[in-house]
Amino acid sequence: MNKKCIIFFLMLFAMLACGGDDTVVDPAPVPVRRTIIVYVTADNNISSQLQNDITEMIEGSKSLPDDCRLILFSDYNIGSTGLPYIAEIKNGVKTELREYANDFYATSADNMTDVLQWIVEQSPADEYALIMTGHGSGSIITEDTIATTKYTKLYAYGYDNDGGQMSTAGNKWMNISSIATALSNLKDTDGNRLHFDYIFFDCCCMQTVEVAYELRNYTDYIIAPVSETPANGAPYTSVVPILGTNKDYIGAEIIKQYIENTSWGRTGGIAISAIKTSELQKLLELTRNALHDIHEEGVKLQMNTSHCIYYFRCDESDDCPVLYDMKNLMLLNLEHSAYETWLNQFNKTVVAKHTPIAATPWQTNINIDFYAFTVTDDNYGGLSMFIPREIYDTVERRFPAGKSLNKTMLTLEWTNAIGWHDLGW
Q: Is 328 in contact with 381 (CB distance < 8 Å)?
């Protein structure tokens, strides 16, 4: 090759290299900082409302930060096969990632573990968060889930049907201890136990101290309603964009959106709060000591519940309240100095809450009547607690014979650690 040809090819190469400045190069993918998992038990009587939530999530995803992934599991695919599926929601689009060949109980601990583990493996991130929607009744339990009779409604999260067709016989609830079992089996991509920045329960009555204590090892914060909520749930169009917020402030942010962007939030409010799980152990110790200090040896500790705020009834036809507001309960039963010491720790535990407007109590018409008591900042804590009562041994409408709350609730970690047997129970 002569010198002119060599010079020509060198010039051509230089021109092509310079022309590379005009080449369009796809930007590098943004590293995933947080994967937000939404677990929807929708195969029940609020399927349409939960589907509306998913529609709101799709709209809200248009403003979700690029370093966050929103992955949805729903056990009911409305308008399609009805089978459970997993999808990513991003930039206003829902893209199905997996559809299961058969229906199954989403309220089984084993199934929940399998679903969540698959999502974690497919969507690894530096941080994880979990949203659980559906029905809820907090820590009110009967027996364990799934393995028991198909004809018993088993509280406290769910409920789910396994056949895609609504049937009372097929409904299954999930106990809090079963949720803890499901979460305890999860591993991150390094093989360590998975830990969530926060868990948001968008379902009734889930903010109980028993629920929180049972799940304390798997999340830093729990955000949840302490009372009933309308089936429409959270306003996800405005909630989804903030799901990447700093975990230390996410509770207050979710509560703010819940109140400002729902009609029931604006008119009367809703009993919803956020708690910091690392403060629960100290709260347990102070609560246990306070109750033992007021106990009279040789008799059952009978706590004063007169006009105390409560969040659930054992039987809708009986005057049988349960899940009392923890702050109000201790205010009614402790001496002033003991209460102030206890309250200081309680306020470190409940890091954000909304106090409903006294003149227009939050909307609820099934499990409680908020006109029966006064709700103020002084007596409302936004976290409920179980205490044994003799009436729970006689109410069986929601509990099988021989399975009263006084027996079943003592199987939970918090309730057992309080030492109710030493308090006469």
A: yes
Give the C-alpha separation, 366 to 231, whole Å: 12
Q: Smallest Cα–Cα separation from 349: which of 227, 225, 184, 208?
A: 208
- The residue written with tokens 């109410």 in the block is 395
> Which of 111, 42, 119 is closest to 83 using CA atoms?
42
Residue at 16: amino acid letter? L
Q: What are the pLDDT digits (tens) for 126-135?
A: 999 999 998 8
Q: Which residue has the higher pLDDT, 237 or 14?
A: 237
Q: Provide the whole-model pTM.
A: 0.88
Q: Count of CB atoms within 10 A of residue 339's CB?
A: 17
**What is d(CA 105, CA 74) in angstroms, rounded to the nearest whole number?**
11
Name the token pair of 46.
């609020």
Token duo for residue 370:
């908020």
Sheet holding 34-40, edge to edge: 93-99, 85-90, 68-74, 34-40, 127-133, 196-202, 219-225, 272-276, 350-354
Asked if 135 and 157 count as a contact pair (C-beta separation under 8 A), the reply is yes
Taking the C-alpha atoms of residue 310 and residue 157, their distance in angstroms, rounded to an integer, is: 19
Q: Name the one residue in this structure whose structure tokens are 């709060």.
A: 273
